[in-house]
Amino acid sequence: MDGFLSMFERLGIVLLVWLLTISSSTPAAAQVNSWTSPDEVSDYTKIEKKYDALLPLDTPFTDDRGYRVVLGDFFKGRPVVVSLNYSDCPMLCDVQLREFVVSASQLEMVPGVDYEVVSISLDPNETTRRAKETKAKYVALSGKTQTADGWHVLTGERSSIEAVARALGISYRFIKDRKEYAHPLVFTICTGEGRISQYLQGVGLPKATLRLALVDASEGKLGSPTDWFVLSCFVYDPNSNSYSPLASRIMKWAGGFTVFILLVCLVPFWLRRTPAENADSDERTPVTS
Predict the structure, then answer these.
(1) Domain topology for 33-205
(2) pTM to 2 decimals?
(3) Longest Cα separation, the chain
(4) Of 228, 23, 224, 244, nearest to 107 (Cα)?
């Protein structure tokens, strides 16, 4: 019995070390340099998070090949990463998309196979040719030209852009004197059915954060048991742009594990008791009159 107990003691220690390891190696340790909008436009660059809201999938656009499409064409049952950018952005869009490409390129998940990427231009005057050039730049940066079918840069009328922005809860504004758009830096992770699952804000997106967000949005189609275990104990923290441990969830898991260990240790002991031991125990039980 002593050897049996020591085996589970070692198992418990291993699990504790593993929990401490993932809590320090998951995206919770990664920080992000978020961009804060200038005061004069901050009211126009807010995010009203609308979790589980359905996007307007019938909204018309033109894709980077020049074909007329609707947003729903890119929701094929797998997660979709949606962003609002524009090709002539002087700085921040390029930084945001480059960081995304760096993180996405390190994943085992592949655009066009495991998920889709849809970038909608905020500029209603952006041409298909310009959108095609933008897509080519980031696909080349990824070093995986075979993933081009999973990347989509869309252009459209102002009404179409605003319809999607409203559904995402994203505010933006065109600043005339600067001739540029002020908008929040955010990737919206959606389910394959077009519902909002997560908002990943800022730049410097850790690959582990992106992976967990895609796994979560996949509704069981992507990820390993470890990914799902982490998601059951961690929640996304927009301040650090990462998944951080939630104490109540970890305590719930720890409590369940403790009960499991007790049962595993005690049930064999009860089952291995001989009939004689049980009878002897009954004889020593005092009887009251």
Answers:
(1) Glutaredoxin (3.40.30)
(2) 0.69
(3) 98
(4) 224
SS3 category, 121: strand
Is the separation of the CB atoms in 128 and 120 below 8 Å? no
CB distance 115 to 109 below 8 Å: yes
CB distance 154 to 119 below 8 Å: yes
Q: Which residues contact 265 (CB under 8 A, 6 or more apart)?
A: 4, 5, 8
pLDDT digits (tens, 9 = 90+) for 127-178: 999 999 999 999 999 998 889 999 999 999 999 999 999 999 999 999 998 8
Q: For the chain, give the percent of residues with pLDDT over 70.
A: 61
Encode pLDDT of 15-33 as tens digits.
443 443 444 333 333 333 3
Q: Where are the domains of the chain?
A: 1-31+225-273, 33-205
**Tokens 């065109």 belong to residue:** 174
The pLDDT tens digits of the residues spanning 43-62 come to: 667 899 999 999 999 999 99
Residue with tokens 């390993």: 224
Alpha helix (H) residue ranges in the chain: 2-25, 92-105, 128-142, 158-168, 207-217, 225-233, 247-271, 275-283
Cβ partners under 8 Å of residue 64, min gap 6? 128, 131, 132, 134, 135, 152, 153, 154
Pairing outcome for strands 186-190 and 242-245: unpaired
